[in-house]
Specification:
By secondary structure, this protein is an all-alpha fold. It contains seven helices and no strands.
């Protein structure tokens, strides 16, 4: 049996670490997201080597995958839980405004619109201002 290339191993370790770490943050076992340099230390590589390796293996910076996994978790919570958007933002260590900006940047939709569309609720039209 042939051993996996080291770059593949490092990338897999990084992605698995992110999954566990994000779950730990949501469950309250960890109070904030770790910086990439601390994650690199946890998986026993230098931050520079982590960035180079993930970029080489996956074609994108490690931070991209970090955000991608946070967004995936946010989307899952928006669809599968009855938690308020503000509570989901707090679970993910964001204030509601920055969470909304982040989700809109990655999905093109605000959290409220994302949730409504996925849950099949009709979209409400914004109120028109009446000028007297």
């Amino acid at each position: 049996m042939k051993a996996e290339p080291r770059g593949f191993q490092i990338t897999r370790q990084y992605l698995l670490f992110l999954d566990r770490h994000i779950d730990d943050v949501i469950q309250g076992h960890t109070i904030e997201f770790m910086a990439l340099n601390k994650i690199a230390k946890e998986i026993a590589v230098s931050p520079k080597h982590l960035c180079y390796t993930v970029q080489k293996e996956k074609g994108k910076h490690p931070g991209y995958f970090y955000n991608l996994k946070i967004i995936a978790k946010a989307k899952e919570l928006l669809i599968s839980s009855s938690l308020s958007i503000a509570k989901i933002a707090l679970l993910l260590t964001y204030d509601a405004l920055n969470f909304s900006k982040l989700l809109k940047k990655w999905t093109g939709e605000t959290p409220g619109r994302f949730r409504k569309k996925r849950l099949g609720q009709p979209q409400t039209q914004p109120l028109q201002k009446t000028i007297f």
